[in-house]
Fold this protein.
Amino acid sequence: MSSIFFMSVLVPLSILLPISTGLYKFNRLPVTARVILYYLFVSAVVSAVAVFMARVLHTNNQPVLHIYTAVELVIFNWFYLKLLQPSGNNKKIFIVLPVVFVLFCFINVFLQGIHHSSSYTRSIEAIICILFALNYFARMASNDLDKKNLNQPEFYFNTGIFLYFSGSFMFFVFSNFINLGLSRQQFNILSVIYASLVLCMYCIFTAGFILCKK
């Protein structure tokens, strides 16, 4: 299997696996699972638009990805708001955070340029989502959440998010410079690793949907 086929065809199409599973079990999905399904829909649409712009229109698709970064964080913030069910000042954080982040995404358009990779916002988004995921794991460990077994779909959704953002954090940080000083083969290896993280997240999400019960 060529790396181009893996990154350009197999991984993008693999999103259909969790989407189809989520749709099949839609009536059994809790709110948290439905939020993940909405995220997958948004991701699929953005991926299709980005590919169309790059491959058919031969135009820069970075403007779409700037918008996607803001929307992605808002959706995951919504997911963890429902999952962690914070109260008091903690709940205010989940209300203020997406507003501040969207504002920063707008400012970043002028910092990095609309036609360049949004590495600043992607990196900060990764840190935020990693902290969300660690918060969930910490509450599991302290027994604040009764979800200490592998039969809970939320555990899989959280694990998929944590794995993806933890592994791709450095890729986001150096996305504007990662090809400097690297051969094409080395760059392809890094791209395959990133695509593999996306594929793993989709597979873990699928497992989470399968475990959803009415």
The first helix runs from residue 3 to 14. The helical segments are 3-14, 16-24, 31-56, 62-84, 89-112, 119-141, 153-173, 184-210.
